Every structure is written in structure tokens, then in C-alpha cells.
């Protein structure tokens, strides 16, 4: 355990430790289950195995088989059952093994979770968290690698988290579990092993709808999420010596979206680029671009650009897969060109 | 309101009769309204199926959970919801339980009476219901969840996923299939490889029971037994109540597809008559008069209520 | 049968009749089934009943029960089965009763239809059409009224049609059936009874990726689809006397998208507004706005605006429902304000 | 290659042996590669299950359609796909059948041999397979579709939707469940309310057959019978082949969850030995040597092949 300065980590005061993104998620689950015994989990292989990505290790031992339940291969039950269990006063945190599998429970996610409260006149709350291991991870193929958060952003009724650091993974997951609304929690599989400082406190809760400035800058605003945040920051560091001072903003949640922080930045930098791993067309980059030009059109000196995943399915081959999502080099090149407009 | 212990059988039957006949009057009143005034949405009449709905729900305890199906109001009324909010939902009034959000005949809810609602996509109730039962198991609250569905909905994959898991976990849930022989224009006999939906129960290691759905008390008894079993921790039961779809799929459906004698107004084995037989005439007439006026009054009140204000559109998206 | 001038209808020459949007779809189905016996249909209640909206009336009689098949309530089979049937050399045209039900077959749509060809190295084609009655229709509620075309636009591998007129409904459906790729065909339920001129020819095929100028104008470009096209044109007529000459463009297909026609228009009018019934946030309006500012930023005199469906589920009550989607009045008001910037 | 008419049984068995032993060598070669060189993707070893895969596929005609499962290469090789493109897929080589698109062990295809592929989401094969069979019914092409799946996948709702429809329409499809007792870390006995997956067949009005999956010829015979039935227009059959998962879910899985004796390298009732018994030693040794060198040569060729070029990324999205 080390104590780092607030400036270095962006976290105000307190004791911190450097832990992995996976560990941060595991701790959030354990702490919230200790805090509130209505919190429980279900999913495939989360118990005895501790999850395909090891995120739930140790939880079966601590909380027992009624609170850490291994299901059969039945995604509609995992999500729809969670919805039903929420109506009966519990707080289910469920895992789909891959975010892509939200399509195998889409009626349950986009109808039951998103709309039940509304359709039934607000008589119920729907405190469900769906954990969704997301993004490319090295050869998992077209149906196990997608970034589908935009779809969740389009359908009203779902909150959407896209943590990029261990600290945010933990703090946002704790916020998600405490939230009375359904949350789709997109964990990036490529970040599971990344380490970073996380506040020690049990009350490290990161509020939804508050963006994080990952790197301050003055010449160009880059909005990035998930795996792209580090690449954008790396690109910024490469650009700095060339006199291009990039501000990198990580919105952390897409619903609610902290557009104010983004607009304020663009009003200073006059240029915006959105970087995301999800396919380009009709991805959330378009929404951010559109909102910014709606609100700050006359502050923009250049069009808003996007650096995004290809409009293709993802090939299985790990090298081809990387070629389908933005690299640091691509971000550097695009940022240079945009800054030159 | 379980079978035993509780009020004696005669009282149960009288109460079931009262509710069934009330819903019957409600059915007729709504049909009249839809025919004369039109209707925004789809009204799926449940006339003729009220007996099984009320019979089954009458076997539930007050704090048991209910997911109903789309065919009429019998389920919710039997669970204790007053008529006025139900009519209000139907008519898109501010006094409806969903204030114009759910409405049609499709959605109403009453959290205090554990009427949890219904999914607009058939079969979503299966997984929701199993999940509610899993919560009861976790909380040890002793509650049972009852899920209604049609013969058509029984083909949805959510059934398979929910039923397997419910059986393996021995969840306190009771599945009640209203087999009225039709799923819109699709005959059950042409869509099922087995004679009964209940024939599928062994695949899930659960008891399958076929019961005459026009016999409200038989449905009551079968449900009471299944609920007891569930409450004892022995897991789910599949009950199939055989009934008939008297009218079209929705009111206004001209049923060009229907090649059995279209039933129209005749209700074979009418549960109202069957339940009424053993009730002394004067008592029955008293109940009928009371039910009729209750319906008239509630329908009038709903009609007189204001429509929901536009401001509700933005309410209830988030908690 | 009448012969109308090409100028009045936007259709080049030939004999035309005025028929309904439903009838146009029904004709397209019948003609394509006559033309190619590999074409067949399945869905709920499409045979004996002729479809919940009557679109398939008469087809069972003409083509028999093996080519017009009533299924059980099994959306995963309807779509996934179509995918499998396409691999075996047939051309399935399937109907989901409501577009919203694509969520009950989402794995089949977004994985199987969209990616099978790609994942299997291009060895197969996937000539499937999924007909999706879409949009508000008067009291069908939150799970029977949505406009979900944006989601299909985001996931690569699906073509997306959104016909707004009887002529386009027929011509695009014929094109869809002839297309070797999977097509999601969003029919607007609120247009089923609308009539319009449709060319007589059996070869009235409207190519994908070609926008239609529904009303030419010089001051402001409005892009609208489906039910919104008529409202946008009505708004334009109201604005004309006030000196605001609106060009209304209907892209007709979202994938492929004819962005060139839109950009060319904006380069003339210098102002763009997108009108859609789908929820605003992350709707396809954002994509169009973003592409236009990417390509024609310096031609824009004002921000791109959107007039869209609310970010809420749709309430069942028909009056509340209408309040959730753009009205002609709202389009007029927004266009006036935008023109004044 | 149906049972009758066709080559005599001894020849069939020898051919099955040849394929099984070839796949066994392939399994060992791949394991060696994954352990030494690592692997981009997941390799789900099928070692020990080759017998049932090859046995079943050997009962298919050349133009019958195949949807395989994720456990090894036995299915595709038995259907006639050469080893080189299969290894190429595995290694992400340009000579793979999917040129880096599908790869892993998961996806390969051969349109000319009617190897149609596999969905990455378990259970999507059910609806795809039923649809392919519906096309055959429409085209009257006399083909049968065979769909493989695991005991875990049997819980997906797509099974229910596909199986009901296939039965009612009497589609020419044969379902083959490889029940190896595990779905990743989930024991079949803890996830199923019935002893056998095949116990679910009566719910779908179709025959359910349990067969020893280590006995390749028994699986062959059961499949041949089911295929004949399907081809005669009598509808689907559910065959459950009992087998064992010898290794982890994927190569590298340390199986912390596994509380039965982890099998490792011992293959009880090894199909290779069983099939080999009745083949004269010298013949068998000849087959083995040939198989081994075929594997070595194909693996070498795949290793030597170039990786797929980046340009393929944008190919095959559209036709
Ligand atoms: C997933 C899904 N598919 C289709 C529909 C359209 N639909 C509504 S009711 C109905 C028929 C239902 O039949 P059944 O379950 O037997 O109930 P019944 O109407 O006979 O009471 C259909 C097809 C739907 N609501 N949801
Ligand atoms: C819909 C879906 N859920 C979960 C998974 C992840 N998954 C892949 S293989 C597997 C276990 C499959 O078990 P089984 O069907 O018995 O096949 P086996 O691996 O034993 O051969 C799981 C859970 C998936 N691919 N698709
Ligand atoms: Mg029915
Ligand atoms: Mg298995």
C-alpha cells in the first residue's frame, strides 16, 4: 500500500494502493455485497471457477451459493431473471461472459430492464447491474469482441458505464450497484490486467455523469473511452514535443453523459476528435460530435473528427483484429492533421 | 387465500363467483365501449377465461407475486386491484395504474398488491417470474410467484431457459398456461407436437397438470397444490388450463382464419354458470347486482377522469 | 390505373397506379415470388390471416403453405432459420410482427445475419430480408412502437431500408429481395394506409443507396425518413410563404447511405436539420450530422440541428405517444429558428 | 456413406478409424503447438470425443449439411475437409478456410462440402440448422442437416424454438448432443433436471436416443437411422452421445473447479483403441503412419503459409 499525491492520480486525498482493473472490480463486488445483503450475483461459471476472466474469484467462498449463483447457459434468464429479482427487492449484479452476448438477451435488456418501470407507471425500480466484458482481447472473434455501448446509449432507460482505469472500474461499479436504475457496465477485457492507483476507502464511489480529464491540454480536445484512453494519452505525449497540446477527456459514463465538460474544453481548444473502438458508423462518437456542434458550433475552428473501429465485423486473427481498432499511431496522425486545419 | 387453512370451500367459491361475474360485466362493458367509441390500443378480451384466472389467483396469498397475461382483467382484479385504475389504464386516464404509460389492456401494476406487471413481448414473463422466485428463495420470504401465459407463448425459448433453471434451483414458481386453442390465427394443434403443453413438463423434471379451465374451482385446487409444493421448497409446477377463445384475438378481429365454429357470444361450459349453480338464487342475484353496479360506477369514474398530462412522458424513465 | 407525369411523382416515365403502401409491399412480395421460386416467406400469422397488418394477404393461396409458412411464436427461429435457409440456396423473406421484436432475435440478426459470411471467409451469401413493421401506430405501447433502424446501421453487415412512400416501399423491397446481403426492411406502420403513385412495371426496383429529393429547396436542407418525410414536406409548404425554401431529402436506405446527395444539398443551402422518429440520443441523425460536418464543415452557416423522438420509452396512450415524436409544428418552429441563425 | 446401401461395415469402420486416428494426431500436434508457441484465440480440445464426431458424420451423405460444435476438428475432417485449411484457420493463415476471419478453433467452412459453419454464440446452430432443413424441404433436395451441440448448449432457448418447429414441420434435421458432462465449469448433473438430454425429446414429439459416445460405430448406426428417418420425411431425432471431456474447456484451462478425477491424458474407453481392435495390426500400423505423416505435413504447410493480409479485413462484409 502506498500513498500517492492527488495530483498524480486525479483522486482527492486518502490512502491508495496500486491494483489491477480486475481486482478493483472484484473488490467492488465484495464490498457492496458486504455492505448490503440484498446484493447478489448470477452468471455462468462465476462461482466455482470465479468467472471466465477471474473477476468473481473468492466470492462464492465468502458469500455462499445463494448469493453467487452459477447458472446454466441461459442469458435470457440471467438478465430477465435479474429484472424479476429486482422487482422483489433484491439487487442483482449479473455477468454475461462477453458483452456481445447482450444480443442473446436483448429483449430482456432493452425492453425489460430499460422499460419495465416506465411501462408500469413508475411503481417499481430496476436496480440491476449487467457486467459486460467488452472489446477486443486477442483472438476471440466477431461474436466475442465487440464494443456495443452505443446501442445501450440509444435506448432510453439504461445507464451506461465504460471505465478505463482500475479506480474508475471500482468506483463506478460501486455507484452502479447503489443506483436504483439498470446499469450496463462495459468492462474492457483488454484492461483487466492493467494496474493503477485506487483509493483505499470502502466509500470510493465515482458518480455517474462526471467526466475525467485524463490529460489537460489546450490545442485539441480528444474524447476517448475504455482501451482508447491510454492510447489517446500516449498519442498526446507524442504530440506534445511537436507543439500540439492535447486534452484527453474520458466521459466514464455515456448515460448520463457529461457533455458540459467536453463543451467547455472545446470552447478552449476549438477542436475536437472522438476516439472509440466501436464501429464508426452510428457510434457514440457521432452523438458527441453532434452535441458539441449543437452547443458550441461557433467555437469550432474545424470539423469534429472521429477515429474509430472499422465498419466490419471483427476478424478472429489477433493481428487483423488490432488493425480494426484505432492505434496510437492513427490517433497521432489524425490529431496532427486536425490541428493543422 | 390458500385452500387450507382458510375460509371454508363454500365461501371461497362464492368469492370466486363474485370476482368472475364482476369481470364478466367488465368484459361486456369494455366491449360495448370499444365497439361504440373505438379504442386506442388493443383490447384482448378474456371473456370465458375469467374462471380459470380468478380460480388460480384465489389460491395465492396476498404477498405472493403475480405476472399476468394479456387476456383480460381477471388476474389483476382477483389479486385485489380495484376496477377503477384498471379501467383507467385501458382508457389512458390519469387515474390508471400506469397513467397512460402501459395501458391498452396490456399493462397495469400494483406494487402494494404484488401485481408485478407483464412484458409486451410474449414469454418475457417466464424469465422475470423465475427471477422473482429466485429473489424469494434468497430472501426466504416464503412467497410464491405465479406466471400466466398462453399456449402460443409456450413456444418461446425463454420458457426453456426459465423452466430448466427454476427446476434445478427448485424455485417457488407456478406456471399457468391458459390454453385457449389459439395464438392469434395459429391453432395450438398445428403448432404443438404434443397434445398438451403440460406434456412438456417431464423434460423439466416438474409435475405437469392438465385441468379444465372452465372449472374455476378445479383450477383453484390445482393451483393451491402447486403453490403449496412451491412454498415447501419442492420447486415449480406446470399447470395447463384448457379453455376457449370466445372472441377474436383482439376486439375487432374478424377472424377470417378461423375454421372452427366461431364462438361469438356463446360460452360453452361458462364458468359463471358453473360457479353460480350451487349458490342460492337470491344470494347470486345480490352478488350480480352489486357486481354490475361496481363495474358501471368504476367505468364511469374512469371515463370521467382526466387524460394523463403530457408531463408524465418524461417521468419514470429514471428512478 | 392512371398515368401521371414524371414530374409529379418523381418517377421516370411509364404507367402508374395510385395504390397503398401495404398493397405496394404485397405486390413486391408476390412479384418476386413469381419471378424466383427460391423466394419464400415465414412468420407468425402471415398465411391464413395474411399478416397482423394484412401485408401478406392472398399469398398463401397463390404460393401454397411451403412458400408462405406460418410459424409458432419463435422469433429466433424465424430469423435464425431464415439465415440457415439462405445458406441452403433459398431466399427467405421473413416478417416479425413488430420491429421491436428484433430484440427477441437479436443474436440471429446482429450476429448470424450480419456476420456469418464474414466469419466464414466469404464462402456464403446471406440473402435474407427481415420485414419490420416499425414506428408509432396509435397505442401499441413501448415494446411495439419503436424506431430501431439506427442499431442496424451501427452493426456492420446489414443493409437497412426505411421506405416512406408506396413507390419506394415496393421498389426497395424488390431490391432487397434481389440483394445477396441481409436487409432489415423497416416498414412504417403509420404509412400502411397511405396511397401514392407506383410504376406499373414488374421491374420497378429502387436501388439501395440513392436518396430521393422529396421537395427541392434552397434555404435549408431537411433530412427525414419514414413517417417524418410527409411531415417535413408539410412543414416546408408552411414555411415557403415565409420566405424559407426548404429542401427535403429522404435517404430511403440508411445502409448504404447516400451522403453525397445530402452534402451536395447542404453545400447549396448551408443549413441542415435531421428529423427522425427514433429517440434522439445516438440516433442516426447524429451520424448524418457528423458526416456532413466532416465533409462540408466550412459550407455550414449554422450547427446541424435535430428534431427527434424523445429519449424515453413510448407511452401507450395514443395522445402521449404523438407527443413523443416530431410534429409538423415542431419541424416548422425548429426550421424557422435554424434559418434565423 | 449411409449404412445401407454402401460399402460393407468393415470398410466403414476402417475409414472411421482412419479419420479418428488422424484427428487424434492432429489434437496432439495442436496441443504441442499451443503449449510451446501460444495461440491467438481459444483452442477447445476435442480429444477423446473424435469417435462420436467421426462416427456420426460418416453416416451423412456428401451433400448433407453440417453445423459442427466447438470441440475439435473431427466433424469437419470427417465431412471431407482437408487438414491444411483447418490448421490454417487455427493459425490465422491465409490458407485457412476463413482467411483469419473465423479461425481460433471456432469457425471454418467449406461450401463445396456443405460444412456450413458454426455460431460463436452457443445454440445459434439450432435455429440455423432447422432453417437449412426447411430449405431442403422446400427445394425437395433430399438433403439432411446434422447439428452438433454440447450438453451446456442444450439449455439455450433457441433449442426449444427450433425443436418445436422442426418437429411440427417434420424437418429433415438430426440433433447430436455431445454430452461430455461439463459446460466449462458447470457439471451437467447440476444443470439438468433430467438424467439425459435425450429425456427432453418426448416434449418435442421426437425420438430421443442415448448412445455410448466412445463407441464410434454405435454413434454411426444411431445417426444413420436418424438420417434415414429424416430423409423419409418423418422429422427430427435427438441423439445424445455420452462422452467425457478429457482436458480443460480450452487448452490452458487449469480446471480449478473440477472435482472429479481430472482426466488429463488417460482416455477411458478410447475410441481409437476400440475402433482399432478389429483391424489387423499391420493394417492399423499402416493407417497410423499415414495419418501421422498427413498431420505433420499439413501442419507444417499451415505454419509455413503466410498470415492473412490486412486487406482481407474489408472483404466479405458484403457480397
Ligand atoms: C415475442 C412476441 N411475438 C409475437 C407477439 C405478438 N402476439 C401478441 S399476442 C399473440 C398470440 C398469443 O397467443 P397465446 O399465447 O396463446 O395467448 P392468447 O392470445 O391466446 O391468450 C401474438 C403472436 C408478441 N407480443 N411477442
Ligand atoms: C450464448 C453463449 N453463452 C456462453 C458462451 C460461452 N461458452 C462457450 S463454450 C461454453 C461451454 C459449453 O459447454 P457445452 O455446450 O457442454 O460444450 P463443451 O464445451 O462441453 O463441448 C460456454 C459457456 C457462448 N459461447 N455462447
Ligand atoms: Mg392462446
Ligand atoms: Mg459439455
From TrEMBL, chains A, C:
Cofactor dependence is on: thiamine diphosphate
The record, for Pfam families, names:
Transket_pyr, Transketolase_C
Keywords (alphabetical) are: Oxidoreductase, Thiamine pyrophosphate
Query: Start and end of every Transketolase-like pyrimidine-binding domain?
Result: 19-194
For this UniProt entry, which segments traverse the membrane?
Answer: none
Q: Which SUPFAM superfamilies match?
A: Thiamin diphosphate-binding fold (THDP-binding) (SSF52518), TK C-terminal domain-like (SSF52922)
Q: Which InterPro entries match?
A: THDP-binding, Transketo_C/PFOR_II, Transketolase-like_Pyr-bd, Transketolase_C
Q: Which Gene3D superfamilies match?
A: 3.40.50.920, 3.40.50.970
Protein's recorded name:
Alpha-ketoacid dehydrogenase subunit beta
The organism is Nocardioides deserti
UniProtKB/TrEMBL annotation, chains B, D:
Asked if Metal-binding is a keyword of the record, the answer is no
Entry keyword set: Oxidoreductase, Thiamine pyrophosphate
What species is this protein from? Nocardioides deserti
The cofactor required is: thiamine diphosphate
Q: Which residues form the Dehydrogenase E1 component domain?
A: 19-302
Q: Does the keyword Metal-binding apply?
A: no
Supply the InterPro entries for this chain. Answer: DH_E1, PDH_E1_Alpha_Subunit, THDP-binding
Could you identify this protein by its name? Thiamine pyrophosphate-dependent dehydrogenase E1 component subunit alpha
Tell me any Pfam family this protein matches: E1_dh
Amino acid at each position: 500500500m502506498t500513498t500517492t499525491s492527488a495530483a498524480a492520480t486525479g483522486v482527492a486525498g486518502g490512502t491508495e494502493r496500486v491494483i489491477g482493473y480486475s481486482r478493483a472490480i472484484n473488490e467492488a463486488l465484495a464490498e457492496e455485497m458486504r455492505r448490503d445483503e440484498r446484493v447478489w450475483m448470477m452468471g455462468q461459471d462465476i462461482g466455482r471457477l470465479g468467472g471466465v476472466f477471474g473477476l468473481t474469484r473468492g466470492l462464492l467462498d465468502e458469500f455462499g451459493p445463494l448469493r453467487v449463483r452459477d447458472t446454466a447457459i441461459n442469458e435470457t434468464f440471467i438478465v430477465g431473471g435479474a429484472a424479476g429479482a429486482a422487482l422483489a427487492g433484491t439487487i442483482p449484479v449479473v455477468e454475461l461472459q462477453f458483452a456481445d452476448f447482450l444480443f442473446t438477451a436483448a429483449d430482456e435488456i432493452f425492453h425489460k430492464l430499460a422499460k419495465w418501470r416506465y411501462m408500469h407507471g413508475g411503481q417499481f425500480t430496476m436496480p440491476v447491474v449487467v457486467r459486460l466484458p467488452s472489446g477486443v482481447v486477442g483472438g476471440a472473434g466477431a461474436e466475442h469482441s465487440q464494443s456495443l455501448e452505443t446501442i445501450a446509449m440509444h435506448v432510453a432507460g439504461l445507464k451506461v458505464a465504460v471505465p478505463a482505469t482500475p479506480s474508475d472500474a471500482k468506483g463506478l461499479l460501486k455507484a452502479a450497484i447503489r443506483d436504483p436504475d439498470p446499469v450496463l457496465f462495459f468492462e474492457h477485457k483488454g484492461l483487466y490486467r492493467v494496474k493503477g492507483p485506487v483509493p483505499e476507502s470502502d466509500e470510493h464511489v465515482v458518480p455517474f455523469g462526471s467526466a475525467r480529464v485524463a490529460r489537460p491540454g489546450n490545442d485539441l480536445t480528444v474524447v476517448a473511452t475504455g482501451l482508447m484512453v491510454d492510447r489517446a494519452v500516449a498519442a498526446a505525449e507524442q504530440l506534445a514535443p511537436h507543439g500540439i497540446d492535447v486534452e484527453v477527456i474520458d466521459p466514464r459514463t455515456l448515460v448520463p453523459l457529461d457533455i458540459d465538460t467536453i463543451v467547455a474544453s472545446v470552447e478552449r481548444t476549438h477542436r475536437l476528435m472522438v476516439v472509440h473502438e466501436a464501429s464508426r458508423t452510428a457510434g457514440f462518437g457521432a452523438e458527441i460530435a453532434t452535441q458539441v456542434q449543437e452547443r458550441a458550433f461557433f467555437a469550432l475552428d474545424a470539423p469534429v473528427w472521429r477515429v474509430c473501429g472499422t465498419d466490419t465485423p471483427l476478424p478472429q486473427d489477433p493481428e487483423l483484429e488490432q488493425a480494426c481498432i484505432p492505434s496510437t499511431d492513427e490517433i497521432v496522425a489524425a490529431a496532427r492533421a486536425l490541428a493543422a486545419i | 387465500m390458500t385452500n387450507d387453512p382458510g375460509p371454508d370451500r363454500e365461501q371461497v367459491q362464492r368469492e370466486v363467483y363474485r370476482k368472475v361475474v364482476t369481470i364478466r360485466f367488465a368484459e361486456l362493458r369494455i366491449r360495448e365501449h370499444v365497439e361504440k367509441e373505438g379504442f386506442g390500443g388493443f383490447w384482448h378480451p378474456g371473456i370465458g377465461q375469467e374462471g380459470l384466472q380468478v380460480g388460480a389467483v384465489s389460491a395465492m396469498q396476498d404477498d405472493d407475486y403475480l405476472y399476468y397475461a394479456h387476456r383480460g382483467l381477471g388476474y389483476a382484479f382477483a389479486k385485489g386491484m380495484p376496477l377503477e385504475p384498471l379501467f383507467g389504464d385501458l382508457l389512458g386516464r390519469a387515474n390508471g395504474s400506469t397513467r397512460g404509460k402501459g395501458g391498452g389492456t396490456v399493462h397495469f401494476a400494483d406494487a402494494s398488491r404484488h401485481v408485478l406487471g407483464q412484458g409486451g413481448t410474449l414469454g418475457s414473463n417466464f424469465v422475470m417470474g423465475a427471477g422473482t422466485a429466485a429473489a424469494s428463495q434468497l430472501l426466504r420470504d416464503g412467497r410464491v410467484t405465479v406466471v400466466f401465459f398462453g399456449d402460443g407463448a409456450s413456444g418461446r425459448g425463454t420458457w426453456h431457459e426459465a423452466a430448466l433453471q427454476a427446476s434445478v434451483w427448485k424455485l417457488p414458481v407456478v406456471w399457468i398456461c391458459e390454453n385457449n386453442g389459439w395464438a392469434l390465427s395459429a391453432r395450438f394443434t398445428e403448432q404443438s407436437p404434443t397434445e398438451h403443453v403440460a406434456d412438456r413438463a417431464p423434460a423439466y423434471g416438474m409435475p405437469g397438470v392438465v385441468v379444465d379451465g372452465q372449472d374455476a374451482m378445479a383450477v383453484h385446487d390445482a393451483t393451491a397444490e402447486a403453490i403449496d409444493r412451491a412454498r415447501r421448497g419442492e420447486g415449480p409446477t406446470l399447470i395447463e388450463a384448457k379453455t376457449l377463445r370466445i372472441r377474436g384475438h383482439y376486439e375487432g378481429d374478424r377472424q377470417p382464419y378461423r375454421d372452427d365454429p366461431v364462438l361469438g357470444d356463446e360460452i360453452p361450459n361458462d364458468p359463471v354458470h358453473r360457479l353460480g349453480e350451487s349458490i342460492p338464487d337470491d344470494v347470486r342475484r345480490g352478488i350480480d347486482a352489486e357486481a354490475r353496479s361496481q363495474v358501471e360506477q368504476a367505468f364511469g369514474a374512469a371515463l370521467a377522469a382526466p387524460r394523463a398530462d403530457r408531463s408524465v412522458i418524461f417521468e419514470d424513465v429514471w428512478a
